[in-house]
Amino acid sequence: MKSVEVEIFGRQFRLRSDNPTRTLKIAQTLSQELTELYESYENLDFARLLLLACFQREDKLQTALEENQELKAELSRVNQMLESIVSI
């Protein structure tokens, strides 16, 4: 693991990562999201902005996981249909 320094919402953090480039990109994206949230919720402190960002990301993740499961089920149905057609 390598040590990488990132800036998130104007604050410096030193993190350890196997992929520093990806870590920097994630930090930049998170910083941008926090800036956008701050524009809407100026009264929230850093910790609450982070919590709100976490909830938003978790919501997106759960939606993506649900869509992934639906796509897997659809792919399975298509594969079954193809198998039945090929075996004829």
Describe this structure in words.
The protein has two helices and two strands; from the N terminus they run ββαα. With 88 residues, the protein is α+β, with helices and mostly antiparallel strands. It has one domain (2-86). It has a two-stranded antiparallel ribbon. Strand 1 and strand 2 form a beta hairpin. Helix 1 (20-40) crosses helix 2. It starts with a strand and ends with a helix.
- Morphology: elongated
Sheet with the most strands, sense and barrel status = 2 strands, antiparallel
How many individual helices?
2
Summarize the helix and strand pattern as letters. Answer: EEHH
Number of strands: 2
Distance between the termini: 54 Å
**Overall radius of gyration:** 20 Å
**Main structural class:** alpha+beta
Strand content: 15-25%
Calculate the mean pLDDT score and round it. Answer: 95
Strand order of the largest sheet: 1-2
Low-confidence parts, pLDDT < 50 over ≥5 residues?
none
What proportion of the residues is helical, as a percent range? over 70%
Relevant terms:
alpha+beta; 16% strand; two-stranded antiparallel ribbon; 88 residues
